[in-house]
Design brief:
This protein is of the alpha+beta class and about 260 residues long. The chain has one domain. It is about 30% helix and about 20% strand. It has seven helices and four strands, in the order ααααααββββα. Strand 2 and strand 3 form a beta hairpin. Helix 4 runs antiparallel to helix 5. The longest helix is centred in the middle third of the chain and has 15 residues. The radius of gyration is 18 Å and the shape is globular.
Length: about 260
């Protein structure tokens, strides 16, 4: 598996470590009540996929970065994407955390087979089994699924499209050692059902998740996490798109192949 490989339905794509074969995705409940339900079973439900690279392939931008020791306040940080795995340094830890957030927040997390593959690829082996059991209980909960408008098997009702995507906005290393790292990922999420008869329309939310990472088997793996709301920017006075426009966008716009 190499950089740029696609997974799932093609609507959200993320690059994962070379040797871990997975078809990503996972979602979050719409509204406070569903969030409380997932928390009650000890599961974080992240959201949506993607990150902006901002002229990563622009030669002039690369030259400017080389000549300056500090990036401009609004400029993205990080080196060019690696070809396999994540680098054993602070930048690699940030890239791993951002990509794992994308996978864990994708709709594939509602499919048992794909969810297991994601968990095995993202989490350290010593915590993967426990996390897989927690997630199975959450995603098999009929009240949770009904609350977010999905069928008992986790699929969207006929004529509707399920949207669960995370868009990382930025990352920050708060602690770093040779084999341990703590990385915060600030992101916005899209979650809901698009379609004429949807009672849970696609909404936007903002969160920050702190990942505890361990360098194991030649790659960064998640050992623990914490999630909190925000920071939340002031919303602009923009008219919400129609159900038809949202459904069209979901089907036409795929996620990025590499986060950060």
């Amino acid at each position: 598996m190499s950089l740029g490989d696609d997974y799932g339905d093609g609507q959200t794509r993320t690059r994962m470590p070379e040797r871990d074969e997975l078809p990503p995705r996972r979602g979050r409940g719409g509204g406070r009540s569903s969030r409380g339900l997932v928390t009650a079973v000890g599961v974080i439900v992240l959201l949506i996929a993607a990150i902006a690279f901002a002229n990563r392939d622009n030669e002039g931008t690369r030259d400017a970065d080389k000549s300056s020791s500090a990036a401009a306040p609004t400029a993205p940080t990080g080196e060019r994407p690696v070809s396999s795995g994540f680098a054993h340094d602070e930048q690699g830890a940030q890239s791993a955390a951002a990509n794992y957030a994308v996978a864990l927040g994708s709709a594939e997390m509602f499919d048992k087979g794909r969810r297991d593959a994601i968990v095995d690829a993202v989490y350290a082996s010593e915590v993967a089994a426990e996390r897989r059991a927690d997630l199975d209980r959450a995603y098999a909960n009929p009240d949770f699924l009904a609350n977010i408008g999905l069928e008992k098997d986790g699929s969207a009702p006929s004529g509707q499209s399920f949207v669960s995507r995370i868009i990382p906005v930025g990352t920050k290393v708060t602690e770093y050692g040779a084999d341990k790292a703590t990385v915060e990922v600030w992101y916005t999420s899209l979650f809901g059902l698009s379609g004429d008869n949807s009672t849970n329309p696609v909404t936007e939310s903002w969160y920050t998740t702190t990942y505890e990472l361990s360098w194991t088997r030649g790659d960064w793996k998640v050992t623990d996490f914490q999630q909190k709301d925000g920071p939340v920017p002031v919303g602009r006075d923009q008219r919400a798109s129609t159900s038809e426009d949202m459904t069209k966008a979901v089907s036409e716009y795929g996620g990025f192949t590499y986060a950060r």
